[in-house]
Design brief:
The complex is a heterodimer of chains A (about 400) and B (about 280). By secondary structure, chain A is of the alpha/beta class. In chain A, about 40% of the residues lie in helices and about 15% in strands. Classes of the chains: A alpha/beta (about 400), B alpha+beta (about 280). Chains A and B meet through helix 8 and helix 13 of A and helix 7 and helix 8 of B.
Chain lengths: ~400, ~280
């Protein structure tokens, strides 16, 4: 049962009993960092400062080399795609009672675009594709005049692709926002990446009161979500155990202990409550027992590929590997790398040649930076040459930019 | 008689006393070296306020170490009665005053500089026409590294007479001004808006600080001065270059003509004719 109320600002607040909450932007609260994680981070930062390397302090319960990655099919069964249906329902309730144009903001990889896709599909909304980069630099009059003019509502999922950090790249987004806020574009929802939103606040009129976001996921809500993501295709009960300590992290249809709660809290803190990122990192850390040698345990091998059969034949153990090491990038922060990362985050990805046009660096230096970032696992390129910050490298990229004093998002 | 009086003032300088003095000197020198090496090394691996705070601690800690060592050594060398102290320190003062006047003045100014902090390590200052980043505040002098990567040593003595212009005053940011000289015939509002956007879209700009476009009419046209802050003071020259390059490109894109200095052509008769190129 959903309880609804109107707050002092005229915004409706909903205390939804489920794990999904849509809140005004200023109410976003990243989960607190557990003391142990904070201490570890400070220690790592000190070691970086004095040029020390990392070394493993503990003897792992299962050496990572002994474990093997899970096949995609099995990963899909253990960590399925997020069901954005409940979030889309919440969004629709907000949209019905709110302004003609609402904004949905999310940090990179959080899944807010999928939320809008789900909402748009359910509501039969028009999907507005962003203008080309040439349109943006030429103020995009043609793109704006081609705006859907029928009575159907619309969704523009990526406002961050409607501008460029270039002296000629702001006119279009200013005009778009002016028209949207004046009600000249009809009813619709605009999605925007949190980094672009943070920047646009300085260069255009953005309405803070109409902006919504999915509330940050703490450890407890992540546990509920991860249980939900285990599909019914799994034939047996699943439990996730820490590969280093051997302790239970999460049990589907069961109770996870305090140690497991701390593990998920730590994950939530590292992702700053970003649910999409938390899912990606969780998925990347899952490991299985090695394949049994032929004839050694034919029964177990035949029952389930890739996972360990416990003494209880109905339980499958999936090992959660330790978080991957931070890219070495942090040990030697470099201004050029920071400029490239910041541009990629502000625009939520850019083609390499355009990146060189926007930055005060020669193209070969930009390419060199992109190559270094790719080797470090912080950036990745789509086949079409569109570079973006890779999900596993995002926390590192954010920390690097924070250390160098660049504009950050609010998430 | 004189020797007897001096022996009353000074303690016996036995081998043990000399060893004590040498040890104190060695410890003080070691501590100063540690402070002078480690704090700048650590500071240069940090950014923002923490960097400036660490760098600014160097001269203060050095002064504390020197004063501490001095106070420790004096009673070992001199019999610490009031009469003796006045006699020895007075003589020392006279000697310094006559023979090493400027040196002593610089030392005193160095102590004042630690207290008043007209410059600290990491500050960008202009003294006597030299502009650069303060890299070392010593006892007698300070060292600046200019934009041309020259190391300039300036005695603290300048503190008494020269104005000291400090651009960031202990903070991580400083204001940069970039000039644009525009032909008199133009749309001023358009230029102002364009230059404002040029600053807003610079990757170096500190967006939380004010951006100003100041216009000033001149006989040859209009001078626009774009004032903004880079994220870090050390980016100032790259920031100004970025604003200049992109500002020019944007004004050209908008069809704004730049003012140019007149060129003079010599005619066949030898008379000069001035013409202004646009």
């Amino acid at each position: 049962m959903t309880q609804q109320a109107i707050d002092a600002n005229g915004c409706d607040t909903e205390q939804d009993p489920g794990i999904w909450q849509l809140v005004p932007l200023e109410e976003y609260r990243p989960p607190p960092t557990p003391a142990t994680r904070a201490a570890r981070a400070r220690w790592a930062s000190l070691k970086r400062l004095f040029g020390g390397g990392r070394h493993q302090d503990e003897t792992p319960a299962r050496a990572e080399a002994d474990l093997r990655g899970l096949p995609e099919q099995q990963l899909d069964a253990l960590v399925a795609a997020v069901d954005w249906g409940p979030g889309a329902d919440l969004l629709q309730r907000r949209f019905e009672r709110g302004d003609a144009v609402r904004f949905v903001i999310g940090p990179p990889g959080s899944g807010h675009v999928e939320l809008l896709r789900r909402w748009g599909t359910e509501q039969g909304a028009r999907w507005v594709t962003p203008p080309t980069y040439r349109d943006i630099l030429e103020s995009g009059a043609g793109w704006l005049t081609g705006w859907p003019s029928d009575a159907r509502c619309w969704v523009l999922p990526r406002l961050e692709h409607c501008w460029l950090r270039h002296a000629a790249g702001l006119a279009l987004v200013r005009e778009l926002l002016d028209r949207a806020l004046a009600g000249r574009l009809g009813r619709g929802i605009i999605g925007c990446d949190s980094w672009a939103w943070a920047y646009l606040r300085y260069v255009a009129t953005v309405p803070a009161h109409s902006a919504l976001t999915v509330q940050a996921f703490g450890g407890e809500r992540l546990a509920v979500l991860f249980r939900d993501l285990v599909t019914t295709d799994c034939p047996r009960q699943v439990r996730f155990c820490n590969a280093q300590t051997g302790k239970l992290v999460l049990a589907v249809d069961g109770e996870d202990d305090d140690e497991g709660g701390a593990e998920l809290q730590s994950l939530a803190a590292r992702c700053r409550g970003n649910v999409g990122l938390a899912r990606e990192l969780w998925r990347a850390r899952l490991r299985a027992e090695p394949e049994p040698k032929a004839g050694a345990d034919e029964g177990a091998a035949g029952q389930d590929e890739g996972s360990a059969a416990d003494s209880d034949a109905n339980v499958t153990t999936v090992w959660v590997a330790p978080p991957p090491e931070e890219p070495a990038l942090m040990a030697d922060p470099d201004e050029e790398l920071a400029l490239v990362l910041h541009a990629l985050l502000l625009h939520n990805g850019l083609p390499g040649p355009l990146l060189a046009e926007l930055l005060p660096l020669p193209p070969f230096r930009v390419q060199a930076c992109l190559h270094r970032l790719a080797v470090a696992g912080v950036a990745a390129a789509a086949p079409a040459g569109h570079w973006h910050v890779a999900a596993p490298g995002y926390p590192t990229a954010r920390e690097l930019l924070q250390a160098q004093g660049f504009l950050l998002d609010d998430f | 008689m004189k020797a007897e009086k001096l022996s009353n003032v000074l303690n016996d300088l036995t081998a043990g006393v000399l060893l004590d003095l040498a040890l104190i000197l060695a410890v003080a020198t070691g501590l100063i070296l540690i402070v002078q090496i480690t704090l700048p090394w650590l500071g240069n691996r940090l950014r923002g306020r923490r960097r400036h705070w660490l760098l600014a601690m160097v001269p203060l800690l050095r002064l504390v170490i020197i004063v501490g060592a001095f106070l420790w050594m004096v009673p070992i060398v001199i019999d610490p009665s009031l009469q003796n102290m006045v006699a020895v320190l007075g003589s020392l003062g006279l000697a310094l005053g006559f023979a090493l006047k400027d040196y002593a003045s610089s030392l005193v100014a160095g102590i004042v500089a630690v207290g008043e902090t007209p410059y600290r390590n990491g500050d960008w200052v202009e003294i006597d026409g030299v502009y650069g980043e303060v890299t070392n505040v010593g006892m007698r002098s300070l060292q600046l590294v200019t934009a041309d990567d020259n190391l300039v040593t300036i005695p603290h003595l300048k503190l008494w007479q020269e104005p000291i212009s400090n651009a960031n005053n202990g903070g991580p940011q400083l204001q940069c001004a970039t000039d644009f000289h525009v032909h008199p015939q133009h749309d001023g509002a358009k230029v102002r808006a364009a230059l404002h956007d040029v600053a807003l879209t610079s990757p170096y700009v500190a967006l939380d600080r004010i951006i100003l476009v100041v216009a000033e009419e001149q006989p040859w046209g209009t001078l626009y001065r774009l004032r903004a802050y880079p994220i870090d003071a050390r980016q100032q020259f790259r920031f100004i270059t970025d604003l200049t390059v992109r500002g020019k490109a944007e004004l050209i894109r908008l069809g704004i003509a730049f003012a140019m200095v007149p060129t003079f052509e010599t005619t066949a008769t030898g008379a000069d004719t001035g013409s202004q190129e646009l």
